[in-house]
Design brief:
Elements lengths: L1 H8 L27 H6 L16 H14 L3 E5 L2 H12 L5 E5 L4 H13 L3 E5 L4 H7 L4 E7 L11 H11 L3 E4 L25 E5 L13 E5 L2 H14 L5 H10 L3 H20 L4 E5 L9 H7 L10 E6 L5 H10 L4 E2 L9 E5 L17 E6 L5 H12 L4
Parallel strand pairs: 2-3, 2-4, 4-5, 5-6, 10-11
Antiparallel strand pairs: 1-7, 6-7, 8-9, 9-12, 11-12
Helix pairs in contact: 3-9, 4-5, 4-8
The structure holds pyridoxal-5'-phosphate.
């Protein structure tokens, strides 16, 4: 009996090598074994040459990191337990007391909240800039500026900035620039090579991606990545990653690995359906403005056109509408409640269409943005349902407005 119990733990069987299948294996570990003390002392955890501890990487996380580098055109990748953790990791690794970070006013809101909370408490100041006006970014640089965030398209209102112009301003000053690339996802444009024909090599220094969205595609995984093309920058972020103890579960990494092969097809499908619905909403009298970068009158459309693929695959799967100002917030909420296929819920990139009525004025430093028509704002995330059914759902819910 004693032998049997120990044998279940120290078992001599080793399966034959050479197993190959469509998906890479799932390796789960906190502890990783070393053959000798010498190997334990000398084994390197900072590059992917060996294994030391589950938190520092397994074959599963290394495989996912390398595929994400391929997706985004980067060379090094770190995984974080959520998109927001990846955002926080980039800021924490790059900033220290006395520094200042510049953030677009339409950034993913929790990025701003982090700046207003922990960063401020640690003596790191922030300023918000208008992403549609590079001169405004230029005017906000100071001797303290150590990091600039960019986002394309912006959160909720989907303004598309002149990303190359913003990046150029940062390069001229030698200030690292970090992109929240969740919307583009590595498919709509290349973050590290924005203008490969006219200005090769112009790109961001760091790309942060909420893998929770399109790479997962299931609405069932939280994960984020921080991708770079510079070994020194990567090491700086990796040391912070290690000190903070950030890691991801093997089953979650597996879920993303399994979803990556279908990601481009899903992105195209979300994109095509979203364009159909956004154009349909433009024809509705209840709607005063539709925000979607591929629409000619959406803010920053020309910048989107210059940077992104015009065909499906270049505009993601979210759009917002502004309902006419004579509708109250209560009527707008009733419209959202009346939707049946669009579920009330945050996030995007999964199979289920989602809707959120945002109180936009409270999310922007100057209240309701002057470049948008007044009204109430509703954001849609378009899932993978049939587009005709989604359109019918919008049509029936709009009758709830009256
Ligand atoms: C969702 C999202 C995040 C955060 O991702 P989580 O995994 O939900 O923490 C960050 N940035 C953008 C633009 C997002 O849409």
């Amino acid at each position: 009996m004693a032998q049997k119990i120990t044998g279940l733990i120290h078992h001599p069987y080793v399966p034959p090598a050479g197993f190959e299948a469509p998906q890479p294996g799932v390796f789960k570990a906190s502890t990783v074994f070393f053959p000798t003390v010498a190997a334990m002392r000398s084994r390197e955890w900072k590059d992917k040459s060996a294994y030391t501890y589950g938190l520092h990487g397994t074959p599963t996380t290394y495989a996912l990191e390398e595929r994400l580098c391929t997706l985004e055109g980067g060379l090094q990748c770190l995984l974080a337990p959520s998109g927001l953790a990846a955002v926080a990791l980039a800021s924490l690794a790059m900033l220290k007391t006395g520094d200042e970070v510049l953030i677009p006013d339409n950034a993913y809101s929790p990025n701003k909240t982090l700046a207003e909370g922990e960063l401020k408490a640690w003596g790191i100041s922030h300023r918000y800039y208008d992403p549609l006006n590079p001169a405004d970014l230029e005017s906000k640089f100071s001797a303290k500026t150590r990091l600039v965030w960019v986002e394309a398209a912006g959160s909720v209102t989907l303004e598309f900035p002149d990303l190359p112009a913003l990046v150029r301003l940062c390069k001229q000053r030698g200030v690292p620039v970090v992109l929240d690339n969740t919307w583009g996802a590595g498919l709509a444009f290349a973050p590290f090579d924005l203008l490969p024909d006219s200005e090769p090599g112009l790109g961001v220094d760091i790309s942060v991606h909420a893998l929770t969205k399109y790479p997962s595609g299931g609405g069932d995984v939280l994960m984020g990545s921080v991708i770079t093309r510079d070994p020194g920058l990567h090491l700086r972020i990796k040391l912070c990653h290690m000190r903070l103890g950030l890691g991801v579960g093997a089953n979650d990494a597996e879920a993303v690995l399994r979803s990556l092969p279908s990601m481009a097809l899903r992105y195209n499908a979300h994109d095509a359906a979203t364009r159909t619905l956004a154009a349909w909403c433009q024809g509705r009298s209840e709607v005063v403005q539709v925000l979607h970068p591929a629409l000619p009158d959406s803010p920053g459309h020309a910048h989107w056109q210059a940077l992104c693929k015009p065909e499906p695959g270049g505009a993601a799967g979210i759009f917002s509408i502004i309902l006419a100002p004579h509708y109250s917030q209560a009527q707008t909420d009733a419209f959202c409640d009346a939707l049946r296929l669009f579920k009330l819920g945050y996030s995007w990139g999964g199979p289920t269409s989602l809707v959120v009525p945002y109180e936009l004025a409270s999310m922007r430093s100057g209240g309701w943005p002057a470049h948008l028509k007044p009204g109430t704002l509703v954001r849609f995330s378009v899932g993978l349902e049939h587009v005709a059914d989604l359109q019918a759902d919008l049509a029936q819910a709009l009758t709830a407005l009256a």
